[in-house]
Design brief:
Number of helices: 11
Largest sheet: none
Mean pLDDT: 81
Order of helices and strands: HHHHHHHHHHH
Number of domains: 1
Distance between the termini: 52 Å
Radius of gyration: 21 Å
Structural class: mainly alpha
Oligomer: single chain
Low-confidence stretches: 1-7
Length: 243
């Protein structure tokens, strides 16, 4: 029964978004990007985690067949309750930004850059908290969908801590002056590298991200309002014809 539910055919758009999300995730987890992000360039590390938290999760969520997920949740109500709790807007925002700030604390970042296993754990947590962050915006559960105002407010307050962190790294002096335990790794975060990484988080991951996503949601709202207006006008026209 469960397998029949999850075998529901996916639309071409869902297949495309799943493929795109998987490709971007593979690029982020790929060995060259992992090595560059751990051992040579802080900016590459920043790009890697922005991909895992802001690019991959929405594509994966958009690829989920909603009807199959709803039926699966009916079979597993405990899982649904857990997801509902973790994806409440304020909970998802706190987990997403808490994870972001935690891994950029200098002592924690030093351990992450020195230990491959810890770095992989950080990658997975960026992906997981990214899924939680995006769920209130693209919820496959209709009852959890936010209004336009709710989405814009959620985006603004969730995006602000990321922008503050990125701006802080951009305008502050060198924060990450740590030595790698493995002598083969010569990771030295220069002031310029830190500034580029901060700009990437602040401008691309923060400002541009908010403006682009907010504009998309606002455009969708306008198109829905136009459809509603057209339907109302059509109904009025039919009523006048009947008279």
């Amino acid at each position: 029964m469960q397998h029949q539910l999850m075998r529901e055919s996916m639309s071409r758009t869902q297949i495309l978004t799943l493929f795109s999300g998987s490709v971007i995730a593979l690029v982020a987890f790929a060995l060259p990007m992992q090595i560059l992000g751990m051992s040579f360039m802080f900016t590459v590390h920043m790009a890697q985690h922005l991909l895992l938290s802001l690019a991959v999760p929405p594509l994966l969520l958009l690829s989920i067949p909603k009807a199959a997920l709803q039926q699966w949740f009916q079979i597993h109500p405990g899982i649904e309750r857990g997801i509902r709790m973790l994806t409440r807007p304020w909970v998802a925002s706190v987990l997403f930004n808490g994870n972001l700030w935690l891994w950029h604390a200098p002592p924690v970042l030093a351990v992450m850059m020195d230990q491959t296993g810890v770095h992989l754990c950080a990658d997975l947590l960026y992906l997981l908290t990214g899924l939680l962050f995006w769920w209130p915006l693209l919820s496959p559960i209709q009852s959890q969908t936010l209004s336009l105002g709710g989405k814009l407010a959620y985006l603004f307050f969730s995006d602000m801590p990321m922008m503050l962190l990125g701006a802080g790294m951009t305008f502050s002096g060198p924060l990450y002056t740590f030595a790698m335990g493995d002598p083969r790794r010569l990771m030295v975060v220069s002031a310029q590298d830190q500034q580029w990484g901060g700009l990437l988080m602040w401008v691309v991951g923060g400002l541009f991200f908010y403006l682009i996503v907010a504009s998309i949601f606002f455009l969708q709202w306008m198109l829905r309002q136009e459809q509603v207006q057209r339907a109302e006008e059509a109904n009025l026209y039919e009523e006048e014809e009947d008279r």
